[in-house]
Amino acid sequence: MYISYDAGKCIFSIETANTKYAFQIVGGKHPVHLYYGKKDGAEVAEFENRFRSFSPYSPDEGRIYLADTCMSEYVGFDSGDFRTSSLKIQNANGDCATFLSYKDYRVFKGRLDLEGLPCADADENTETLELTLVDELTNVEVKLYYTVFADCDVISRYVTVKNNGDSAVTIKKIMSLTLDMPDHDYDMISLYGAHVNERNYQRVPLFYGNQSIGSRRGASSHQFNPFIALCRKDADEVSGGVYGFNFVYSGNFLDEVEVDQTGGARVQLGLGSENFDWRLNAGDTFVAPEAVMTYSDTGIGQMSRNFHKFTLEHILPPEPFENRPVVLNTWEACYFDIDEKELLRFADTASKCGIDMVVMDDGWFGARNHDRAGLGDWYENRDKFKDGLKPFVDKMKAYGIKFGIWVEPEMVNPDSDLYRAHPEWCVQCRGREGMLSRSQLVLDMGNPAVLDYLKDIFSKTFDGVAIDYFKWDMNRHMSQVGSPILPADRQGEAAYRYMLGVYDLFRWFRAKYPNAMIENCSGGGGRYDLGMMKYSTMIWTSDNTWCRKRIRIQYSSMLAYPASTMSCHVAGLKHCEVPEQLKYIYEVALGGALGYELHLPNASDELRAAVKVQIGNYRKYEDLILRGDYYSIMNPYETNISAYYYTNADRDRILLSFLQNEPEEKSREITIKVCEAQADATYYDEIGKDTYTGEQLRQGVTVATDDSGWNSRMWYFVKQ
């Protein structure tokens, strides 16, 4: 049992392998947070009220309980707590006061499935606490769920709201996770950026007031990733207390941390309020997305590994192939200039280089010769594929390779047959001219007619075609977010209903084509989140394929997500004039799932031969990259170096990487310690052909910086 209840003290305790979480029911109706941290030696003090003048209190309770100063589990708006709230519901009277009181609880094996939403898969050890709260005036019932993934040291949080009253209410704000902390002596780590510049590492101290990140773009976005961490100021990769948080959702979100008058910090993740409200009629239930949290008392690295293990074991779909295919994508080589003859050249070359799959990117459908036409018309362009898609794909596969194809189901060009037939199927505000972005409009995925059309046209185009892989793109954000099918008083639901429609179509694709792999993309990493990872084996990490930028993007992505989710391509090479450059770009790409973005049919024999050798080497240790434990040694945002290694559970194989980001005129020696090596073992480096003791590796290997601009090195240590 991971969840227990002390009836005498009214204290709930939730335990994972290494952490403990506790809260208390005060006065029979107030869930008050007590503790979240390491399990060993944990001291959980019972509730002690912190008095502050100007804090409202119930006349019946007096000052025994002050909502404004205590640490709470979940907070109703205008309930005497002036800090940021977890739930705001406008009732039939027009006010938004939301008072939640404890009613009862239950503990059960497994978890609640969240209808229409991605969520973590339970296993035989998963256990859930359901806590029921009620607003006695409106008869709204709120259920808080705490699901334990003990081996990962992860607790997930999600919320349902049911209107048991007689009148409709409107949810104006809802958060899935609230965690009140007794102090704010933390730095906040977040990942900010832009298109082709995703997930930059940022670490700043908490301050009094509210600091937040979020998205109002209809996607989790390039600009801010839903992951955040709070770490003690002295915390580093291997020591110090660190809390990690993430949101299993791909649309608008809000992560907020508020430091209050008591010096405590309130952490919340959820849908927020700016791009969301939801009318809840009598008898209806709203289900909010899942949020997850973890704690490590041994540094940032262990926090990351907790999330990696959780994502690998409970989020990602099963691998459709015995080995993840190494892909050759046509985009940077051809852009829209593709046809059957050109793609068959790619298939021929790929098969000779050891590449497993050719992915035909944009340009294969409708009137798609540029990005201003054709989106929405998902049938093959017969000028490019005169006999149709099926005979063409059969010819491709005759070369012994797998075949992948690009789609962008959520978008439409005004210059398309679909838009001309159904302009009312777009996201739009009544009476306003639609705004373009990248020559595109957004389809209203919350409209069942749109989903029916997409399922029908993809079925007609793809049925009988031997497709192994879909690259699913989404190349603009949502503005003027309204739905023509919703009444005026429900327009605030449009963005959320859009995401429910997107998830519905993803589930349809997975059921319709169960043996095909999906790679998610949104102009690169614009939806790099746990919601997309539920349906996508991997995600195109960034449209920026330049290796130096990728070093940093890959480092910061690994703070929250495992390497197997990162699609990393060897790209940016037109000639093989500098062998060190090819080696460097390849070794950067080995941070995740390997692929290629080159015009191999036009490449030199030397480059093709090098690619074949690269893939052969990758196969030796791809399991370490895709499933192993990750240890970061040097942060490329703090130094000019990225150094890290992957290892297996037995620590008998270790893949170590050193990447110098920029040239250095003055050479210096860097010592890289492999602390997970077995001290009494002997290891042979199959790349450098040297032998080391485990203790030598723990003390560190030495490598020098240089001024070449292409300085990288790898070691593959195998225990003898």
3D architecture notes:
The chain is α+β, with helices and mostly antiparallel strands and 720 residues long. The protein has 12 helices and 38 strands. The chain is globular.
Rg over CA atoms: 27 Å
Low-confidence stretches: none
Strand runs, count: 38
Strand content: 25-35%
- Average pLDDT metric: 96
* Through-space gap between termini: 41 Å
Query: Structural class, please?
Result: alpha+beta
Overall form: globular
Tags for this entry?
single chain, 720 residues, alpha+beta, ten-stranded antiparallel sheet, eight-stranded parallel beta barrel, 12 helices, globular
What is this structure's SSE topology?
Layout: E1 3-6, E2 11-15, E3 19-26, E4 30-38, E5 87-90, E6 101-109, E7 127-135, E8 140-149, E9 154-163, E10 169-181, E11 186-194, E12 197-205, E13 209-215, E14 224-232, E15 242-248, E16 253-259, E17 265-272, E18 278-280, E19 285-287, E20 290-296, H1 300-315, E21 327-329, H2 331-334, H3 340-353, E22 357-360, H4 389-397, E23 402-407, E24 411-412, H5 417-421, E25 441-442, H6 448-462, E26 469-472, H7 494-512, E27 517-520, H8 530-533, E28 538-540, H9 547-557, E29 566-571, H10 579-589, E30 593-597, H11 605-627, E31 629-634, E32 641-647, E33 653-660, E34 669-672, E35 682-685, E36 691-693, H12 694-699, E37 701-704, E38 712-719
Parallel strand pairs: 21-22, 21-30, 22-23, 23-26, 26-27, 27-28, 28-29, 29-30
Antiparallel strand pairs: 1-2, 2-3, 3-4, 5-10, 6-7, 7-8, 8-9, 9-19, 9-20, 10-17, 10-18, 11-12, 11-14, 13-16, 14-15, 15-20, 16-17, 24-25, 31-32, 32-33, 33-38, 34-37, 35-36, 35-38
